[in-house]
Amino acid sequence: MRPDNQVTRREFIASTSMLLAASQLGMAQTTNREPDALALEGGVKAVPRALPRPKRWGEPELQQLSAAVKQDSLYYWRNQQTQLFTERFQAIYGHKYVQPCSSGSAALHIAVAAAGIAPGDEVITSGITDIGTVIGVLFQQAVPVFADLEPQTGCLDPADVARKITPRTKAIITVHLAGNPSRLAELKEIADQHKLILIEDCAQAWGARYRGQPISRVGQISCFSLQDSKHIGCGDGGVVTTSHEQFGPLLIKFGDKGTNRLNPKDSSTALGANYRITELQMAFAAAQITRLENIAAQRAKLGNLLTAELAGVPGILTHKVHPEDRCVYWFYLARLVPEKLRCDRATFVKALAAEGAPFSAGYISVPLYGLPMFQNHSFFAGRWPARECGLTQMDYTRVRCPETEAILKTCVRFGVNEAMTEDDIRAVAKAVRKVAKHYAA
Ligand SMILES: Cc1ncc(COP(=O)(O)O)c(C=O)c1O
Q: Is residue 19's pLDDT more than 50?
């Protein structure tokens, strides 16, 4: 090159032909014209456009928040926004008692306390869920007992629930995992036979229907989460609900520092936390709940379409939903069948991501009983009073739920959302079929 940074003609020709050769070489490396070639190996992506994300809030939430700001109190009890949310919730779920509270975990703690679960009592539940399902059980010094799950839903297997019942069992908490109703009729029958209280954890299942009816009506007490990632939310929040007179006033009491607001003369004291919500969250949630039916219907349609499109693909177990139920797919849960594939789960998911179909490998890393605080029985400053006082002999190091563990080792999840179209889902299914075919054993 000349000192004045001008290139000579010869230098120009040499550099441009090198660039041309390099780009041709690059083309050869990134394009594979075989019709079934994986995008990972230079093939054409199965999903042609970036999958859309929903716009989750806007004008209705702003208007409702403005209404709250014009009020002279943001305290929840018998205030306008809480009333409005409650009416809208009741219009869907039909329960007499509705106690909005600070989170889904709070709702579940209130439910367990209202159900009268005492120290040493056993509560049967699922090992694949959020820790919030059992926080309240542990705080009441009761004992979570883990029953195994059904392979293609991840919901409680009623037969194993029945096997786990002991004279100390007082309740069952069933989790409608990923928005799919669990087998409520069988669970209620078992609960009734043994005089147990059935609590529904509906945190992931806003809008789901069991045999045509909104979930929450089979169990005696039901709990919802309004945490940010749920179908509808308000940052953080929850709802606990019942139509049973025996529990209704207790939901209020245990949600609000043990005070019976319905009956000021009630002097019986109860240790209840401050799980109150505020009018600001309720304003937001009152607007959000008007979006629920569209969100639930669209997710149900798209998730079911994905199942139909994946029918019979070797190496894939689809998300199983009872034909009379509505699953609202908080996520789509599929499983890989390792014997039928020549690759591991991480490779499968990497290949899907390259196709433009973002799946996650797994869900929670271990079943709840595998968490260190369960394995070490160290819930309270390294100790577990229920066991130290001889109220339980539970040893979580010995708990085994084979199907639960297998689900976590083989599951892959897809984040279906209401902004997607049927074409998006068909493209995602095409990606799964292509990757499964490529790695078929
Ligand atoms: C099944 C289930 N139960 C309970 C909870 C707890 O809800 P929150 O996060 O509102 O406390 C969650 C939240 O993710 C959940 O998914």
A: no
